[in-house]
Amino acid sequence: MLSSRAIVLSRENFGEADRYLQLFTRDWGLISALAKSARKSKRRYIGGMDLFCHNEIVLRGDPREKPYLVELTVLNAFTGIRDDIDRAMTAGKVAQWVRKLANTATPMPGVYSLLGQTLALLEKESDPERLLLLQLLFQLKFLQQLGLKPRIDACARCSETRQSPGGVFDLDAGGLLCQNCLGERTVAHTMHLDATECQMLDQGDRFKLTLWDGFQFPVRPTRNLLRLTAQFASFHTQTQLPV
Ligand SMILES: [Zn+2]
Q1: How far does residue 239's CA lie from ligand 1's centre (Å)?
Q2: What is the pTM of this model?
Q3: Domains assigned to the chain
């Protein structure tokens, strides 16, 4: 028997009474586990099968090979997320990013704490615009942890230091281009970013979520960058990610 802490990212009915849970665990990263009779016996998994629940779980079998979920204890049910449509939608997108981009059964303790911290802040946030901002910070931090941070400090093609505070972002190259490299490019996959947006893309991953309460960032650039990071990550991972 093995135990770990885990967050429920998705669930799917299986057979007559069973259910597969996709979990993000502290010890093994993203895994799937089979909860036998989960739809008949509520007793064993009481309250811990809902989306985003943070549980202590006990497994039987190899975590990499769809183990059985033996039992669970709820640490935090995050009911405040599921009670509100905006929070639930944002948390759903965060969960989808993790499900689609995290490697299976690979320990990623940084992602585990980022996910837990993000859900805890989501649960307390009631301003829909700030939910978007939180989603953006999550995405920037997550991309950084995956080694997919967009290149902003210098030209993404020739590494020349850039002079202007804003610039043209090139999806292919994975960052901003200098004037020289821009001259040779078609405009199909490019997007102009102002100084505020560039700064956020460059430094958002280093923002401390413990300072979230006092953090401000304008709405329009938040929406632009949410779109950009989704396109950027989809393009470089061959995955379709929600905006
Ligand atoms: Zn260049």
Answers
A1: 27
A2: 0.95
A3: 2-79 (2.40.50.140), 127-243 (no CATH)
